[in-house]
## 1
Amino acid sequence: MKPASFAYFSPKSLDEALANIAEVGDDGGKILAGGQSLVPAMNFRMAQPTALVDLNEIQELFYIKPTDTGGLVIGAMTRDRTVELDSLVKKRAPIIPECLYWMAHPTIRNRGTFGGALAHSDPAGQLPVVAVVMNFNFHIQSKDADRWSGADDFFVSVYTTCLEADEILTGIEVPAMTKMSGYSYKQVSRQTGESALLGVATLLSLDDAGIVKDCRIAYMGVAEKPVMAMEAMAMLNGNQPSDELITEAIEATVKGELDPGADIHASVEYRLHLARTLGAASVKEAVIRAAKQE
Amino acid sequence: MSDLMDIKVTVNGTVYQRSVEPRMLLSDFIRFEIGLGGTHVGCEHGVCGTCTILFDGQPQRSCITFAVQADGHSIETVESLGTPEKMNPLQEAFQEKHGAQCGFCTPGILMTMKAFLKENPHPTEEEIREGIDGNLCRCTGYQNIIESVKLASEKMSHSGSK
Ligand SMILES: Cc1cc2nc3c(=O)[nH]c(=O)nc-3n(C[C@H](O)[C@H](O)[C@H](O)COP(=O)(O)OP(=O)(O)OC[C@H]3O[C@@H](n4cnc5c(N)ncnc54)[C@H](O)[C@@H]3O)c2cc1C
Ligand code: FES
Ligand code: FES
């Protein structure tokens, strides 16, 4: 058997799970969601949790619901594949299925969960960068507390979120994509289902005169967590999105805000090149999509 | 060693009751506790796909799920497809089109494609390529696998079988 021994809990309700993790969380116990990241790490013995609290039998954590304000709430255990194929998600937050298409393989997405991919905080993950650009709201519960966290506070670093050892991410609120909003998710990986070398997500709106409003752009694969392209956003907001301006705005972010590392898959220069080309392509696609709506 | 847990798992329609350690992987359970060696184990970290089984009808990796998580659930392995005398159309197609060479990846590909063809009975070549992108094969170069899946989809639509 590859993994080290652990005590196993399979609670049937959220209350029971919160009691279990309150008991074992501080002594090295962990939450088990889809297990598509945690179990490989256990097979390598890179992770050796003393106990696992398995959320897979808790029916109340599997749901996709509309909110009155035009957004969605998604239960943390909803399978990635379910979210990807859901018609309400496609209608209200089309950037989510667009990025999930790139995440691992369908077989992995059949088991992996929406909450797990966020709680894992993989710097090359597709969902964290989309969470930052859309500003997801995270519902976090423990036996004695109940709180919400914005995406800026939720992601802390590589595989690290603001979740405490006794807390469970139970639901994710996806805000409404404003009317006329254009979106785009782009990434480059060596093959589908492999870790992305770099990715970029864009959301923006155009007013009646075609001026950019509410532009948000974020990169993944350049730092320990998603990075907002503040300079490019500031240059694009309030202006006509000409090709020249888009190129200039992305260049300002690439020069001033991005500091990617090198690894065996890509050099610093190549990542910066991807940041330029994918960044500009993503903004252009979002502009075209925004212009097409009404 | 941690305490043994009693579990009840339906494998290919038969209910099996066993006592296992929580850390036992579902792939090891299928191979060593149930004695079904058709499910292969390659990487044991979710990458190669040869351990793919159907878990409540959905293709999943058995090497990154624990046996205790299958308690009360239903598993299908490659042994459920057919026998050498009476093969499933998918198996026939792999034989006719030479979709297996060493056969190491084949169980995972067959189970992935069983669910794939059920969802998408008339796939394009592009869709087949995407459908097997989570299964590694070191022998065939994939061409014959793609041909086999195409033939299987034709066979299945003619015979009306699932
Ligand atoms: C072959 C392969 C390729 C992959 N490729 C990609 C890829 O391209 N992009 C990508 O983003 N991911 C990829 N993954 C990872 C996959 O998407 C994971 O499923 C996902 O990142 C984690 O989700 P999970 O539900 O499996 O979580 P688990 O593995 O169960 O958990 C991951 C971590 O989050 C914690 N956690 C999970 N849920 C909660 C919760 N509700 N509350 C508190 N803590 C929680 C766990 O304790 C654990 O530390 C890949 C995996 C494989 C096997
Ligand atoms: S053995 Fe399970 S994916 Fe390789
Ligand atoms: S036939 Fe040998 S690995 Fe696929």
Note: Residues A 30-38, 40, 76, 103-104, 108, 112-113, 115-117, 119-120, 122, 125-126, 163, 168-169, 193, 195; B 46-47 surround flavin-adenine dinucleotide (ligand 1) (CB under 6 Å).
## 2
Amino acid sequence: MRDILAHPRSMFSGQLRWVLIAIFVVLAPLAMKELELLTNFGLITQVNRALIFVALAQGLNIVVGLAGLLDLGYAAFFAIGAYTFGLLTWPTHDIEMSFFLAIWICALVAAVFGIIIGAPTLRLRGDYLAIVTLAFGEIIPALVRNLGDFTLTFRGRVLIEDYNLTNGSQGLTPLGRPDFSFLENLFGLDEGALNVGVNPTFWYFAIVITSMIVLFSAIRLNNSRLGRAWKAIREDETAADFMGVDPIRTKLAAFAIGASFSGLAGAVYASMLGAIFPELFKFQVSIFLLIIVVLSGRGSIWGVLIGGIIIATFDGVFLAQVLPDIFNGEVLPEYDVQSLRWVFFGIGLIVIMIFRPQGLFPPKSIETKIVPPTVESAEGVQNS
Amino acid sequence: MSIILEAQGVSKAFGRLVAVDTLDYTIEANSINSIIGPNGAGKTTFFNVVTGYYKPTTGKVVFNQRNISGSRPNQLTRIGIARTFQTIRLFNNLTARENVLIGMHHRLKSGVFGDIFRPPAVRREEAKAHEEAGQLLDYVGLKGYEEHAAKSLPYGHQRRLEIARALATQPQLLLLDEPTAGMNPNETQDMILFIRKLRDERNLSILLIEHDMKVVMTISDKVTVLDYGKKISEGQPDEVQKDERVIEAYLGRRALEMLKK
Ligand SMILES: Nc1ncnc2c1ncn2[C@@H]1O[C@H](COP(=O)(O)OP(=O)(O)O)[C@@H](O)[C@H]1O
Ligand SMILES: [Mg+2]
């Protein structure tokens, strides 16, 4: 059991593994639909949300798990992605850009913000960086709330007056959705036949594709020149500097790429919901993502994938639906069981930190490649 | 012979403590140079100045005709200065091979998109780098340990891995901070031979901090003695060995007087 936990990849090998995964992914919505009918609990929507969180967590894992930078305000990049999508597709702004173009711009904008935030702060180490990113995570939603009606003056001249950029706390709705009308024309279908709307099964596949793009990039980066440099910085920033790795550039790259994953996920999420509000990107989101990464195993891409799906589905289905259903029926009709959510995660974190601090599915290299140290290693280790 | 590195009046102060005090120092190409001196004499601090970790408080360091004071460590690595550490500083959770690959980082060209999409050029570059890393590990005597986590290696092997990682940067000047610290006599003897081999086979200049007098006296072309940040003696090993100031610094004035009697 321990072995399978440590190496989820070793369960099946080679091509068979990929075929099984593909079949599973394609059949999952059918199974979930059946389950939904049986149990009356929303499942596909929750799995969609979970997969969005997996994509977000993959980005955070690059920053926290690979580069070793504690970012407590990562939801800010999620917000930036979602709101960039909002600005580009909210009808009131008259841009109404295509979904397929907008999502990439969102990823890019988030990456640029990653660099803007990172440039002044990445000289800081450890706790200081955590505090600055925390502040940044608070500033972005506040900014969004206040840009619903803003006036910009420069030396007494009014440049912009009472402009509604973000629609304040009411949020932006409706937002752009993927438009397949060209396919309708191509195949001579009725107008609106491929209108995706809120169809959860469509969004399931859209989000699976998004997550796969993110997953693919993360896997490739993990095993590359840049990925090695991130890990070197995580292990010993000073030594990495002496070995020719520029710490600032390397950390900026982690921030930018982590942010771009988040920007992409944020854009798809915004489109799926069709409405976004500043409240969606609160501090709790940053913490929840951090919990996913830490519980799953920092630096482990497959771990974050599997752990993220489990934790976020557990949160959305069990904690949010099943538990209230059980307790609010007869036992505690008035009690808000949802408020126990953080108690659950708090306990989970403590238990993991005590019994398995490297996380449930830690990266392979940390666990397996250890030979017992010989006697000589114990002696004469000098400290300077 | 040509001079590869020249420190001119270099000082480094920490507040009121002057750890390195107006030091003049030159290194000739293809030579082994040792710095010795009591604990706290400023040897490691001088290393940190030469490798760009500290900016000298006064004076300057010239490497290959180029003023390098104020450059960052990673910039100096690129132009040919590499080092190991007094306390081993490996990337513990990375494999031996990955540790060496980090040393090659600045020579590899792949960018973010190359890393993600892996066009043939990047695949070739990576394959070549992995192979070269294997050869370097073999060279320092770590064949078979390529995929072991650095932290799991025995102490002596970790020292060798640090050297392999430094060699991977393709230095002209290699600084070794107490490479035999914590080693038994056999390992120390191996290290002496190995350092010689580095100079001869790899055309390196070596700057060595060393406590083991046997090591210093056997392999050095030049020995420099520091005390309280100042150079108190310099020359060929046998000259320095006889220098009264050196004996005094090491054993104290009283010992010197006793020796004279
Ligand atoms: N970062 C630092 N801050 C303050 N003092 C330091 C620092 N590094 C070294 N020193 C002091 O400088 C002196 C020289 O230290 P060091 O260069 O490590 O000596 P050595 O390597 O010759 O044993 C010592 O007195 C040490 O305490
Ligand atoms: Mg020292």
Note: Chain B has a mean pLDDT of 93.
## 3
Amino acid sequence: MSAVGKLEHGAHRAGQALETVVDQAHSQELHAATSTGLDHRKLVMWVFIASETIFFAALMATYLVNRGKVTPEDGPEHLNLAVASFNTFILLFSSLTMVMALQAIENAKKRRMIFLLAATALWGLVFLGGQVYEYAELIANGITFDSNVWSSSFFALTGFHGTHVFVGIIWICMLIIRALRGGITENNHLAVELGGLYWHFVDLVWVVLFTIIYLI
Amino acid sequence: MATNVLALPRAAEPTGIMSWITTVDHKRIGILYLVTAVIFFIIGGIEALIIRTQLATPSSTLVDPATYNQVFTMHGTTMVFLALMPLNSGFGNYFVPLMIGARDMAFPRLNSLGYWLFLFGGLLLYSSFLIGGGAPDAGWFGYAPLSERAYSPTHGIDFWILSLQLLGISSIIGGLNFIVTILNMRAPGMTLNRLPLFVWGTLVTSLLAIFAIPSISVALFLLLFDRTFATSFYLPGGSGDPLLWQHLFWFFGHPEVYIMIMPSFGIISEVLATNSRKPIFGYAAMAFAFAGISFVSFTVWAHHMFAVGMSPLADAIFAGMSFVVGVPTGIKIFNWLGTIWRGSLRVNTAFLFAAGFIGQFTIGGLGGIMLAVVPVDWQITDTYFVVGHFHYTLFAGTVLALFAGTYYWFPKMTGRFLNEKLGQIHFWLTMVGMTMLFLTMHYVGVLGMPRRIYTYGPNMGWDLWNLIETIGAFIVALGVLFFIVNLFKSMRQKATATNDPWDGQTLEWATSSPPPAYNFASMIPVNSPRPLWDAKYGPHSEFASNPKKIDLSGGGNANVHLPNPSIWPLVLTIGLVIIAIGIIFGFNGGALALDISSMGMAVQSLPIAFAGGIVVFFIGLVGWIAQPAG
Ligand SMILES: [Cu+2]
């Protein structure tokens, strides 16, 4: 490195240090740098997801203690593995479109992002459709919410998950509206990232549910 | 930004009722929490006096058994969810941002939402007396199947379920907000190992809350399904299992005890260090003890269930883990003693309550260790020994600490001192009364008196002890009366408190009393857990000499940008309450306990109320999103 280069490098470092000092001086201001470097909203999303894991863990525990209490013909045998597998695929695919939506806005491709968000919401709706189909099938076989502890646990567990998917769809729709009104840009797209975090979490929960309900 | 609902000047203190309803200032929300929770504390106290009066003499007929069940259920639920938790939240709201040198909480409007959910959750619970056909009557622990429709046919339990769900959301929101605030908004230099211990306590409580409360939320949903949709999650007749309730409840219930006491540990640490004019002894050990207790608290829940017949191995594991809790707790006790040791003590009311806390809480802890011994537990579970024990942790623990905190921080919040003479009377009445009340319970429990009974025969040998307990209860109540009088009397005094009346160590004393809306105009450097002390006496100084005067209030900095007031948290809350009432009445196929139509409201319209609640909720949500936060 030449002497001038070194000097420039030094000046650059000093400038960075100064910036850090100024940053710290401003850290009392709203919207300024945070102690951890993570945006408040991003941090709260992660902690909220941590809290949600206990909610689903409690429901899964309920399902697991009750699954052995009925004979297969009282419920488990009427589950539709094909529909559930299809649903799992759909939801995983929706996670992919969600990732691509975030990537699109990071590359300043807003229209592409809106299209991909819409696709994600659509996959979510298809998933809910599949769930309704499976519920209808079970009910047609005489298995309802109050039939036995297995059916109650099954409907409670998948029902609460479905509600989370539904909330996610509304969330994505709000993101689309916001983007159409100019509220999301390549420099201001944290909202998409947060919606994505939630959506991936809900997908991940489904993968676990699918495993404990249909596979083991 | 002038696009907000109420265009109020930023730094000037707005006044009037609307300014309180729409406030997002953490200090005002803190005061709302504290005042509301004190009112609920008094209501819960009156319920306690009814219980004690009923039990004062054998074969008493003051209240009938059904009423008695409602009163002790409401007493427990009120004290846990509507008094102790929100009192901690109130102090946390007011002081955590001040102690870490922040301008507000990370999410001011969520903070306001947490308060409204708390207030309306409490009002919903108490409305069960009027419109639920009776209050809940299955205990604060709501054990199934007693809490099932067959055994508790009024709407009381439904109100209990829905209000606890609202209060749970409130606590989770509050917990999320505290965690983000504490992790993200510390003043430059305030690393995690320089957090004041009260902030540590609040951080740990918040973590416990967000991990524990989802478990009771699920438990309550399943109970609601049993009661409303004829499922049988907890009904053995339908191959459900009452023990599922107990596991889900105590997975929440044991950490809940620590949720109520961690901030208290913090308060005691602050009060003792300041009034001993010394740094806290063993700061790092104290911080690790917080983390240790909170982790272990998730592994001991089944010590509430030794009597249900678990395997000997499970009993042994849960007993062993329960003993482990004693270790970090013991570390704390010894560190507090080390803090006082050779300090230059200022024996004021706050210090007395903190010192009383150490002695009395230790008794509570020892009782806990006795109960963790499985064979002992088999003998005395469900007796008054247990009642005495947990009152020694929650009254001798949390309540004494909250009194200490009130006497300590009142000057900061109001600019006025609480009267010392009345305070000391309050302290001594409390000490004497609570010992007569709760220590005696241990003894009468060993004599065999069961919990939750509404009366007892005259030939049991319990008469004298119960009478002593009741007299003790009224002495405690007299103490609280002195406290309330003190609050009102002191508020009418002239504001004489300076910024730093106790020669404090932490940042809340570095601003005016009460602080301006923006808290601090500038910040002192933070190089230790007691930045103000360093600034006054120089770094590394153990003991005080000739303080430098520090004033960071900067005298009215009107340019500080503060978040907009907002009405939407209240709108959201009202939507949720209407939904809750809709669920209670609208989805129940069974007979209504009360003829609602006589109140001019058709029963069929209740599902409509449910739908209306959702509409109000969404109006609130859209309004919230559309309003610029800052
Ligand atoms: Cu416990």
Note: The domain at 35-215 of chain A is CATH 1.20.120.80 (Four Helix Bundle (Hemerythrin (Met), subunit A)).
